[in-house]
């Protein structure tokens, strides 16, 4: 009789978002993450289906990090009866709070505009509200990296650095089956690039029976960091020369802080035009930056050295935080300026107004710094759309479009293989999740050829019995 079941309820079947992996053993029912499906309408609709398990019978959520595609459905989970623990780092808890608050606001607005449908019918009431977010916050139980915790009989876990965003973890889980034998599962969570700014590099894990690994960039290599910086510098030179504007759609958490960190270095080394202005036009990114300042204990050595030398890594000449909508509107007249505004995939937020203003001029630049989910406006522009619709207007895309992969929060194929190769005791099975078909299949082929491991590409809803 098999007794450890693993079911893939999100970030599977070629869908990148909606992370949620269900574990069922004689001792625990748990999920790793409970995120939101994003992007195409048919994916968004998956958010409003009933959970494929009873939330009231769920003991634990192991939460890898605070991105929306990992935390977005926690308020729904609580609303549907979840009373267990959410196990996470303190930084994840604090970041998850602002991410969920923002998502809740967007959900309420979407309901008002009749954009949320369940079984083909628009819903008239929000499916959850801010009180459910508050209820989520009461379920958190905070642990540190590296401590091995016996949670209950038959269940032990340890959190390891995933190097993806502040507070992000990979989970090691030791689970006992009905025969009393322990099986070790490792969930990578989203893995970061080695050498990323501010946060530390991912930990390597030596042993596992089963590995569940992400594959966002499983088939690709990022341009290296130095060519990313060179391209960024030439954009800054262009806007200084042309009196133009670079718009950066920002992801509030991590991307923004890494860009600020990079700008801080460039400005203080005097390698950019002293007349340049830098605007952060994202209330959520400002809040996230404050949380970063609260958790310096998770910074890498380079960042700590800068701070020790007296530098404020998020403050520099020409930098200004935009506080309100009136100031945001005035940015329409900006020149020689970098405007960082949310949302990161241009699906909403203040960045849309800046796109309307600045996309039609070929002297301007649009700079993507993170993954663009298929179905989003950001992805359409990145894929070369010459005209896009924003707020009912047709906007010509004449600005120069860039994608700076070196700023990505995600490991590329080389990083993922490096992480996998470090399992000294090779896993019996690898499950590849969190990737579109091109990327997950490319990673599967690579793993099979180079590591001779058995791999699976789980479909949405698919269940596996482990040994
Ligand atoms: Zn993430
Ligand atoms: Zn993710």
Fold and architecture overview:
30% of the residues lie in helices and 22% in strands. It has helices at residues 41-44, 68-71, 74-79, 90-112, 130-137, 225-242, 255-268, 283-294, 301-308, 325-330, 351-358, 377-382, 413-421, 437-451; strands at 4-8, 21-24, 29-32, 60-62, 85-88, 117-118, 121-122, 140-142, 149-152, 155-161, 169-176, 182-187, 210-214, 245-249, 277-281, 319-321, 337-341, 365-368, 387-390, 393-396, 400-403, 429-433, 454-456, 463-466. The longest helix has 23 residues, at 90-112. The model has no long low-confidence stretch (mean pLDDT 95). It contains 14 helices and 24 strands. The chain is α/β, with parallel strands linked by helices. The chain has 2 domains: 4-220 and 409-466, Metallo-beta-lactamase, Chain A, CATH 3.60.15; 225-407, Rossmann fold, CATH 3.40.50.
Furnish the topology, listing elements before pairings:
Elements: E1 4-8, E2 21-24, E3 29-32, H1 41-44, E4 60-62, H2 68-71, H3 74-79, E5 85-88, H4 90-112, E6 117-118, E7 121-122, H5 130-137, E8 140-142, E9 149-152, E10 155-161, E11 169-176, E12 182-187, E13 210-214, H6 225-242, E14 245-249, H7 255-268, E15 277-281, H8 283-294, H9 301-308, E16 319-321, H10 325-330, E17 337-341, H11 351-358, E18 365-368, H12 377-382, E19 387-390, E20 393-396, E21 400-403, H13 413-421, E22 429-433, H14 437-451, E23 454-456, E24 463-466
Parallel strand pairs: 3-4, 4-5, 5-8, 12-13, 13-22, 14-17, 14-18, 15-16, 15-17, 18-21, 22-23
Antiparallel strand pairs: 1-2, 1-24, 2-3, 6-7, 9-10, 10-11, 11-12, 19-20
Helix pairs in contact: 4-5, 4-8
Residues 65, 67, 164, 190 line the site of one zinc ion.
């Amino acid at each position: 009789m098999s007794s450890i079941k693993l079911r893939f309820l999100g970030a599977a079947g070629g869908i990148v978002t909606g992370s949620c992996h269900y574990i069922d053993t004689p001792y625990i029912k748990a999920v790793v993450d409970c995120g939101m499906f994003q992007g195409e309408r048919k994916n968004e609709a998956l958010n409003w289906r009933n959970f494929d398990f009873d939330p009231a019978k769920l003991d634990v959520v192991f939460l890898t990090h605070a991105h929306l595609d990992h935390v977005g459905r926690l308020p729904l989970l609580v609303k549907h009866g979840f009373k267990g623990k959410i196990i996470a780092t303190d930084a994840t808890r604090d970041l998850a709070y602002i991410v969920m608050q923002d998502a809740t606001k967007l959900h309420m607005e979407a309901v008002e505009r009749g954009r949320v449908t369940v079984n083909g019918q628009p819903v008239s009431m929000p499916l959850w509200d801010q009180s459910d977010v508050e209820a989520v916050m009461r379920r958190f139980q905070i642990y540190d990296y590296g401590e091995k915790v016996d949670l209950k009989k038959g269940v032990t876990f340890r959190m390891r650095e995933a190097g993806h965003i502040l507070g992000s973890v990979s989970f090691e889980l030791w689970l006992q089956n009905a025969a009393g034998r322990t099986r070790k599962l490792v969930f990578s969570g989203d893995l970061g690039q080695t050498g990323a700014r501010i946060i530390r590099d991912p930990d390597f894990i030596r042993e596992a029976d089963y590995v569940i690994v992400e594959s966002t960039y499983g088939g690709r290599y990022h341009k290296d960091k130095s060519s990313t910086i060179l391209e960024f510098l030439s954009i800054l030179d262009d806007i200084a020369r042309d009196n133009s504007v670079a718009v950066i759609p920002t992801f509030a958490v991590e991307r923004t802080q890494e860009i600020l960190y990079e700008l801080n270095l460039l400005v203080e080394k005097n390698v950019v035009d002293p007349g340049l202005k830098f605007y952060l036009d994202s209330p959520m990114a400002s809040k996230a930056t404050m949380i970063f300042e609260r958790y310096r204990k998770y910074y890498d050595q380079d960042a700590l050295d800068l701070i020790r030398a007296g530098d404020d890594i998020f403050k520099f000449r020409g930098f200004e935080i935009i506080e309100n909508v009136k100031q945001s509107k005035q940015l329409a007249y900006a020149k020689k300026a970098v405007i960082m505004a949310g949302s990161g995939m241009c699906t909403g937020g203040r960045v849309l107004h800046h796109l309307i203003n600045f996309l039609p001029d070929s002297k301007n630049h649009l700079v993507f710094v993170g993954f663009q989910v298929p179905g989003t406006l950001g992805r359409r522009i990145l894929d070369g759309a010459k005209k896009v619709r924003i707020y009912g207007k047709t906007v010509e895309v004449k600005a120069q479009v860039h994608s700076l992969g070196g700023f990505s929060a995600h490991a590329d194929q080389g990083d993922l293989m490096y992480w996998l190769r470090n399992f000294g005791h090779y896993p019996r099975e690898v499950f590849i999740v969190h990737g579109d078909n091109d990327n997950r299949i490319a990673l599967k082929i690579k793993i099979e050829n180079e590591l001779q491991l058995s791999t699976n590409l789980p479909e949405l809803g698919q269940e596996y019995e482990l040994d």
